[in-house]
Amino acid sequence: MTKRKEIAIYGKGGIGKSTTTSNLSVALAEMGYKVMQIGCDPKSDSTNTLRRGRFIPTVLDTLRSGSSDLSKIVHEGYKGILCVEAGGPEPGVGCAGRGIITAIELLNQKGIIEEYSPDVVIYDVLGDVVCGGFAMPIRQGVAEQIYAVTSSDFMSLYAANNLFKGIVKYANSGGALLGGIIGNSINKTAQQEMINDFSRKTGTQVVEYVPRSQTVTKCELDGMTTLEGSPKSKQAAVYRSLAKKIIESGNSFVPKPLDPEELWSWGSTWVSRLLGEQKVAYEGIQDSKGGGI
Amino acid sequence: MSEIIETPRYACALGGALSTVTAMNSFVPIIHAGPGCGVQLFYGQSFVGGYQGSGRLGGVSVPSTNTYEREVVFGGEPRLREQIQNTIELIKGDKYIVLTGCTAELIGDDVKAVVREFEDKALVLYAETAGFKGSSYVGYEIVLNSFVDQLVKEKPKEDKLVNILGIVPSQDIFWQGNLAEIERILNKLGLKVNTFFNGRSINDASSAALNIVLSPWVGAVLAEKLQERFGTPYLVNPLPIGVTETNSFLKRVGAALGIEVAEVIAQEEEQTYKSIEKGADLVVDFDLQLRFATITDSNYGIALSKFLVNDFGWIPSLAVISDDISEKYRESIKKELNFSPGLSPAVVFESDSGKIWEAVEKEGPNFIFGGSLDKDLAGKIGANRLSISYPITDRVVLDRGYAGYKGAINLIEDVLSAIVAPL
Questions:
Q1: Partner of A151 at 20 to 30 A CA spacing, among A81, B198, B230, B407?
Q2: Do the chains contact at A88 and B109, CB–CB below 8 Å?
Q3: CA–CA separation, B180 vs B166, rounded Å?
Q4: Which CATH superfamily is domain B279-420 in?
């Protein structure tokens, strides 16, 4: 039996990490792997596009109801993908961070992962790593590789940089290392260059650039991943390529996060450049210094 | 980052708040905290505080939400609501106060909103007393502050009424005896005294003509607030022990309220010396002038040193101040401990027992005023000792006190008894 691969995918809220994760899961399932996807976000919608938009009972729902029966929390989705949602409190109450710790502990205690014995486990985690709970999948014995999903939006890179800090913190105590960056919603050369530059500066590597695509949005509205809804599309091919790279990759990095001031000044240079490109693209204006690319 | 402290000499903020509310004996405390906080604070506070039991509304009968993992993840408000409701049904009383512990405040339960739901049913107050906010002393201040904010309204002043602040029940193991003596002598001056623990209500705090802070720092901020809100003047006077300090205390109170105190002072002085005189032969014949060290909070450190130096003629060697006080009060505490040249003790601010023992061992005093934790130390350096500060497990303390005139007699009895005990 090959060793089980456990990875975690982090990214700023709304940046497309659940979309990326679900498509990745399908692509891996198409390659013949048995995949379990565990959503670690109190919204509990990580795996929705694997099940035509339907919600499932979460790990923490069992805690809420006082039951210790976890038999109903694994649901098979498209291509036999095992879908699990950690769940969490309503917005504004309780502690979502503790919720993630509790959910992962419960899954381990009850031997759920062992029971289903998937080849690949993917944790889809809300990525601002604001407290210890959100760092749980990084810590020893949970995931072994972390992927950061980011767009060229500065705050998204900022969140990725924070994630890198979390990884560095646990790296010496057997925590997960960074597998790489997944650039999302990348349509322009300058955006790609910005992410490239960020990875160079932080001593990491970019695994794949995923373009922004209407196909993705359309499939999601139908409650499907792109690979299910539009399997022959160019976008689907990108996800398949990403899956292949991740499953074959043994590369792991201890990232070198930038300090906040360095990050801000680096970011402001790039944002000016991106704005310049936008001006040229939309308004046909070339500024006097020859801005744009 | 905070340091790890070896065997500290205080409980947490929740502990101080809980012992304060329990001592009032009129409000039903409801702890909103994890399982264990309440029971540990009972055994770790009252029980090692001279075996003072739980009382009507304390100890293991304190209602607690006992929040488990479910409440931590999803929020503890429903559980708190249920506990308040049940408490109102089960424990007769029309006044309740919710004291929040660490978990409830970490996850940010909206205690204020839950408490407000009960405004038609009973008076339910709340105090944010998470243990991580500090020591028992801090908890005492937080909870009294909550009473002042949520309960105390402007009332007409009574010119003969004073409030006493600064004594933390249980943390000061002799709180009942100390307050009783202070009340006795102030009564002799014709004053009525509200200690909040003597059957008078904190509700009347605004009626006082003067707030007396019997500590170098605990309650001082609250007194300042009461002055701002109700125009009540205050004086800060650490716990007085013995004739010299109690005389000076009464003169200050007299000056603040325009009361003649000379006659009371003369009477008390005479009676006190009459009692003390009986011990004089023992002291002189056995040449019992010893070098002493104190391991106490700042209040007892000042009070004991002043009495022992000025009234009893002992020689101070070291004052360990163990109540983890803010930097801003430290200079003034050192000044209080400054006696004539050659007679001032070294002053060490330290809460860590390991470090405290090292410092005392280096000084090698003949007598140690500390807690039961210091028993081995005294044995090691061959010093006599008296348990006077928290924690105390080798004495049972019900209403004994060391404050004022009568307290000084108790103190002399206990000190000399400790010395003659082996005979």
A1: A81
A2: no
A3: 14
A4: Nitrogenase molybdenum iron protein domain (3.40.50.1980)
Here the ipTM equals: 0.80
Domain covering B161-269: architecture:
3-Layer(aba) Sandwich (3.40)
Domain ranges for chain B, please list them: 13-150, 161-269, 279-420
Q: Where are the domains of chain A?
A: 5-258, 259-293
User: B161-269 with B279-420: one CATH topology?
Assistant: yes
Residues 6+ apart with CB under 8 A from A51: A75, A77, A78, A83, A223
Those residues with Cβ within 8 angstroms of residue B246's Cβ, 6 or more apart along the chain or in another chain: B185, B240, B268, B403, B404, B405, B408
pLDDT value of position B2: 58
pLDDT tens digits along A212-244: 999 999 999 999 999 999 999 999 999 999 999
Of A93, A96, A102, the CB nearest to B69: A102
Would the CB atoms of A94 and B106 count as touching at under 8 Å? no
Residues with pLDDT less than 70, chain A: 1-2, 283-293
User: Which member of A34, A45, A61, A128 is catalytic?
Assistant: A128
Distance, in Å, from the CA atom of B228 to the CA atom of A107, rounded to the nearest integer, reads 56
Q: What's the CATH fold of domain B13-150?
A: Rossmann fold (3.40.50)
B68 touches chain A (CB under 8 A): no
* CA pair distance A128, A163, nearest whole angstrom: 7
- Choose, out of B74, B82, B111, B114, the residue to mutate when testing the contact with A (most A CBs < 10 Å): B74
- Is A128 a known active-site residue? yes
Whole-number pLDDT of residue A292: 40
DSSP state for residue B401 in the 8-state scheme: -
The conformational region for residue B407 under phi > 0 = left, psi -120 to 50 = alpha, else beta, is alpha
Tell me whether residue A43 is one of the annotated catalytic residues.
yes
Q: Which of B304, B298, B51, B22 is nearest to B169 (CA)?
A: B22
Asked if the Cβ–Cβ distance from A60 to B73 is below 8 Å, we say yes
User: Is B156 in contact with B207 (CB distance < 8 Å)?
Assistant: yes
Answer yes or no: do A90 and B72 touch at CB < 8 A: no
Residue type, A271: V
Sheet containing B346-349: give its strands across: B346-349, B315-321, B291-296, B367-370, B384-387
Say yes or no: domain A5-258 is CATH 3.40.50.300. Answer: yes
Q: Between A and B, how many residue pairs show a Cβ–Cβ distance under 8 A?
A: 43
